[in-house]
UniProtKB/TrEMBL annotation:
Molecular-function GO term, any one: zinc ion binding
Family named by the database record: Belongs to the type IA topoisomerase family.
The keyword Nucleus is assigned to this record: yes
Gene Ontology biological process terms, A to Z: DNA topological change
PANTHER family cross-referenced by the UniProt entry: DNA TOPOISOMERASE (PTHR42785:SF1), DNA TOPOISOMERASE, TYPE IA, CORE (PTHR42785)
Reaction catalysed by this enzyme: ATP-independent breakage of single-stranded DNA, followed by passage and rejoining
Annotated region of DNA binding: 973-1041
Organism field: Ostreococcus tauri (Marine green alga)
Record protein name field: DNA topoisomerase
Matches recorded under InterPro entries: HMG_box_dom (IPR009071), HMG_box_dom_sf (IPR036910), Topo_IA (IPR000380), Topo_IA_2 (IPR003601), Topo_IA_AS (IPR023406), Topo_IA_cen (IPR013497), Topo_IA_cen_sub1 (IPR013824), Topo_IA_cen_sub2 (IPR013825)
Keyword Nucleus attached: yes
């Protein structure tokens, strides 16, 4: 609990839980306003609760001590609950799903309402944070926030106790503080109203009741830390974004964030590393050898003539082939050494927020936002009536002793005593800025195995798949290591000129890996095929030469660039640098995508041209504020506010003064000066120029003033360096050109020269989107891929097929883009249709190896493979931006890698397999968030109605023939409802009656939750009714179709 002096210094230090003190703004303590009987009862509860924490304070303690203390605390909570039954209690949480679950725990005299997140936020307007007024802030509420406050205010008038039970993190603390401030302004905090702050890390009955029995004050340093971060982010983003709008042309409003800009810099710098990477070839030599018993195994060549072979020792393919022939012809190979060892592999700690996001991205392909949405629903119970996991925004690896006991007992029950170590395992995070304020993420009940959750929520749901990952990680953290046997065999020729090495390993004891097998029973078992045959020293070996193999092969490889960041790896990179906190990772990535700074290519994060320019602008003019060390140090200072080591207003003043001066110094910059500076800064990367020295060297070929659209150029080729020389006109200077979508590389002689290139390095790929028909790019290097590349002529249409490069990567084009035909009156005719194009970014083949046959095959899609046996509708295979899929009647089902691996190739996908994929997609439970259905096609515009006569006589109106009634559609032809929509039609009224304040979206979400947890027998009845209705509809539709055709 913070000291009185610290509270006096704080901006919210005068806030106390006595409603009278809140109303008057005095510093009256909470205890003075609590009756003596309740005070003594609360003292006993607090003492028991502190006793229950002995296990944590002592680094674990005995399980028996913890269990006894926890039982006593639970008993005290039950007594306190019984004493409070006569009081009318109102509890406030964030979400309605959580409210519905918790209300069952508190008894009939309690009501739980949702605040729907924050009840107010900073006004999105200049001046909402005023540094000149000691960083005073202006708050406002949206219509939904005002509606939530109204519901709370109405219920509060009938309540005796107000429990603020928002999340236990900084944002949750701020929500409670904001709500109290709003209620105080509305004068709803009566003197006899008992206001309490309660927190719990899991939504279970025991956790909630224990929290209610152990209330506390609002943590004012935590609120101060929230105020500092909110003001800092607002001033950084709002002030810097305004400068970006004025200095960088764009079709959308640009923005910059304190942590968002650093994440963008990381992604842009990694992309520069990838683009600058030059692949190098290297070779390895591997022999297939036979033991005495005739068993074969592989061995790698490691030494030749006493020289150890490094990665790049073999300099050419001819040299590698020479070494391979020497091994193949050697008949004196013997085993010279054997080394046996045992390897242990231990599990990691339970998940924190960042490690959960990393593993969900790696194992499930979930983005950060998708992971956190699924985790939020699991925390709230996902409609099961009880929370399934503990609080999911944490950086701590600590687990409560009673939970450790539950994990160990469950492991013994499921796997046996050999799988559990003698003593519990405890983890402590080594990250220096880890707060560890909450437990690690774990299941609330260790015995609730993933199969049970999958049955409740649906086996393919995001929540069930993420729960399996969380359960396995938590269970594995309290299990024994996995043991593997390893063997290494040294092999040499008789004269010692050739030396080889063979390695083998096999799983000896699965240990903690058994937990992952339980969480994924459909996963293939681990392979044990890497073990070597039985060998002894001095055993003679032979090279396995037969009709199928030459016995020894030289294999060529090329080095790979560093991998691009994914959602998981960027979170890991930010955490390693001490940047951001558990609650910020998902919003950061979401904002980068919304602002179109980053696009996804598969799972990889690729900076867009807009993102590159924004990052270059910030690193050029605000390098200090997007520096990794500066941002991490600022994060640490903000955390010290919570520890009461730093005052938040002086900290903001220290940051704001130099930042404001930097903004003021750049306000007079012209747009052309900014473009020139970015052109110089990006020159080294884009054109291979000499290292940027930090100064702007204005070239007359560059745009003189972007603002008015005028350009100045010179034809003096002496002023243009070879790196900047336009490959089309040979005289113009290549440079950065701004555009509404960000920017591109263009020639200074535009419009005479129309050469353009995406904002990627000009070396390694020459792109011609010029109108110059005589343009010819030189092919001096075999590694250079020229665009457009003519592959040949399509045999069916006779049109030319070319490989081109666009803003989203390489693509194939059939034919040429036709020019618009100008009519005789000088007006342009209708725009001609664009030529067919197919993206080749996801075909899993090197673009440089594409042939005419490949291109012709890709243009065959969409390809019809037959008729659907039930609907007689055509079933087709098509290729989209994310891979291949089958389509029928508006349903698209992906053809995954597992299907392609089973059938061999896409051409082998049969109609039966396509129908099965479509069936599984159609039967998948409806998603309760996001766009789970395609938008309906727009209806054709109706003919405009004829205007009525202004002064039409009544007689004429009477003579007018009455309108014909619209022909009624045959009800038998109306498409029947699916099983879910049948259930929704029956259940929607009940949801509305139970939740009168629910909007349409809330009702749909509640229906989805109820459908997921519906009794299997009742669900089967809906599914059978829907199937029968669909079959009947299909018969009627077929008969009517035959009648109409006859």
């Amino acid at each position: 609990m913070p000291s009185a002096s610290a509270q006096g210094r704080s901006s919210v230090g005068n806030l106390r839980f006595s409603s009278s003190s809140i109303a008057r703004g005095t510093s009256t303590s909470k205890q003075a306003c609590v009756p003596i009987e309740a005070r003594s009862m609360r003292s006993r509860v607090v003492l028991l609760a502190r006793a229950a924490l002995v296990g944590r304070e002592s680094g674990g303690g005995s399980a028996r001590t913890w269990t006894r203390a926890n039982a006593n605390a639970s008993a005290a909570a039950q007594n306190a609950s019984e004493q409070r039954q006569n009081n009318r209690t109102l509890m406030i949480v964030e979400s309605p799903a959580k409210a519905k679950t918790i209300e069952k725990y508190l008894g009939p005299g309690a009501k739980v309402l949702a605040s729907y997140g924050h009840v107010r936020d900073l006004l999105n307007k200049q001046g909402s944070v005023r540094p000149e007024e000691a960083f005073a802030m202006t708050w406002t509420s949206t219509a939904r926030q005002r509606a939530a406050v109204k519901d709370i205010a109405d219920a509060l008038r009938q309540a005796d106790v107000l429990l603020l039970a928002t999340d236990p993190d900084r944002e949750g603390e701020a929500i409670s503080w904001h709500l109290l401030e709003v209620l105080r302004e509305k004068k709803l905090l009566r003197d006899n109203l008992d206001v309490k702050r309660v927190t719990f890390g899991e939504i279970t009955k025991s956790a909630v009741l224990n929290a209610v029995a152990s209330p506390r004050e609002i943590n004012t340093p935590m609120v101060d830390a929230y105020m500092a971060r909110r003001a800092l982010d607002y001033l950084f983003g709002f002030t810097l974004s305004g400068l970006l709008w004025r200095k960088l042309p764009s079709s959308v409003s640009l923005s910059a964030g304190r942590v968002q800009s650093v994440a963008l810099r990381l992604i842009c710098e990694r992309e520069e590393e990838v683009e600058s990477f030059v692949s190098e070839p290297y070779w390895t030599v591997t022999a297939n050898l036979l033991s005495k018993d005739g068993a074969s195994f592989d061995a790698a060549l490691t030494h030749v003539d006493g020289t150890k072979l490094g990665k790049f020792t073999i300099a050419s393919n001819d040299q590698a082939e020479t070494y391979a022939r020497r091994v193949q012809e050697c008949d004196s190979l013997r085993v010279t050494g054997l080394k046996l060892s045992e390897a242990k592999r231990s599990s990691g700690p339970p998940f924190t927020t960042s490690t959960m996001q990393q593993e969900a991205n790696k194992q499930l392909g979930f983005g950060a936002s998708r992971t956190m949405s699924a985790a939020q629903r699991l925390y709230e119970g996902a409609g099961t009536g009880e929370g399934l996991i503990t609080y999911m925004r944490t950086d701590g690896t600590y687990v409560a002793p009673y939970a450790i006991d539950g994990l160990r007992d469950t492991a013994i029950e499921l796997f046996g005593a050999d799988y559990v170590p003698e003593s519990p395992r405890y983890f402590k995070k080594t990250q220096k800025n880890a707060q560890e304020a909450h437990e690690a993420i774990r299941p609330t009940k260790a015995g609730r195995v993933p199969a049970q959750v999958a049955k409740m929520l649906g086996p393919g749901s995001d929540e069930a798949r993420l729960y399996a990952l969380i359960w396995a990680r938590a269970m594995a953290s309290q299990m024994t290591p996995a043991l593997s046997d390893r063997v290494a065999a040294e092999i040499s020729s008789e004269d010692g000129s050739l030396q080889l090495k063979a390695n083998g390993n096999r799983l000896k004891f699965p240990g903690f890996l058994a937990a992952y097998r339980t969480s994924r029973p459909d996963a293939p078992p681990p392979s044990n095929d890497a073990w070597l045959p039985e060998l002894r020293e001095s055993d003679s070996l032979a090279v396995n030469v037969d009709d199928q193999t030459l016995g020894c092969a030289a294999t060529s490889h090329t080095t790979s660039p560093p991998p691009r960041y994914t959602d998981g790896s960027i979170v890991k990179a930010l955490e390693e640098r001490g940047i951001g906190r558990p609650s910020t990772y998902a919003p950061i990535l979401k904002v980068l995508a919304q602002r179109e700074y980053v696009a996804k290519q598969g799972a990889a994060l690729i900076p867009t041209t807009r993102g590159r320019l924004v990052s270059a602008f910030l690193t050029n003019y605000f390098e200090t504020y997007v520096d990794y060390g500066f941002t991490a140090n600022l994060e640490q200072k903000l955390d010290e506010i919570t520890a009461e080591n730093v005052q938040w207003r002086p900290l903001l003043e220290e940051w704001w003064t130099p930042f404001k001066n930097q903004i003021s110094s750049l306000s007079t910059l012209r747009v052309s000066e900014v473009i020139d500076a970015l052109d110089e800064k990006l020159g080294q990367h884009l054109f291979g120029e000499e290292k940027y020295d930090g100064y702007v060297h204005v070239n007359p070929d560059q745009v003189s003033d972007v603002g008015d659209g005028t350009t100045t150029s010179t034809n003096d080729a002496q002023e243009v360096s070879d790196a900047r020389k336009c490959p089309s006109c040979k005289t113009g200077r290549l440079g950065l050109k701004p555009s509404k979508s960000g920017g591109f590389i263009g020639c200074s002689r535009y419009p005479e020269c129309g050469f353009t290139h995406p904002l990627h390095p000009i070396r390694g790929a020459i792109v011609s989107d010029t109108d110059d028909a005589d343009f010819m790019a030189s092919d001096a290097s075999s590694d250079v891929l020229l665009y457009p590349k003519i592959l040949g002529v399509d045999p069916e249409t006779g049109s030319e097929i070319s490989l081109r490069l666009g803003p989203y990567g390489p693509y194939l084009q059939l034919g040429e883009k036709a020019a618009p035909v100008v009519s005789e009156d000088g007006k342009k005719a209708k725009k001609p249709p664009a030529p067919r194009r197919v993206g080749v970014a996801n075909i899993e083949k090197d673009v440089s190896e594409l042939t005419l046959e490949d291109a012709v095959r890709l243009f065959e899609y969409p390809k019809e493979i037959g008729k659907h046996p039930m609907t007689e509708s055509p079933v087709s295979i098509n290729m989209g931006p994310f891979g291949y899929y089958v389509a029928c009647d508006g349903i698209n089902a992906s053809v995954g890698k597992s299907v392609l691996k089973r059938v061999g190739s896409l051409d082998n996908v049969t109609l039966e397999e396509a129908v099965e994929l479509l069936r599984k997609k159609a039967e998948r439970p409806p998603r309760t968030r996001g766009r789970y259905a395609k938008k309906a096609d727009k209806k054709a515009k109706k003919e405009p109605k004829a205007k009525k006569a202004a002064n039409e006589p009544k007689e004429e109106k009477a003579k007018r023939e009455p309108k014909e009634k619209k022909a009624m559609k045959d009800p038998a032809l109306k498409k029947p409802l699916t099983a879910f929509f049948m259930f929704s039609a029956d259940e929607r009224a009940n949801v509305k009656a139970e939740n009168p304040t629910f909007k349409i979206g809330d009702i749909a979400k509640a229906l989805g939750e109820r459908w997921a947890t519906l009794d299997p027998e009742r669900k089967a009845k809906y599914e059978s009714d829907a199937k029968a209705a669909k079959e009947a509809w299909t018969r009627v539709a077929t008969e009517r179709s035959k009648e109409s055709s006859s």
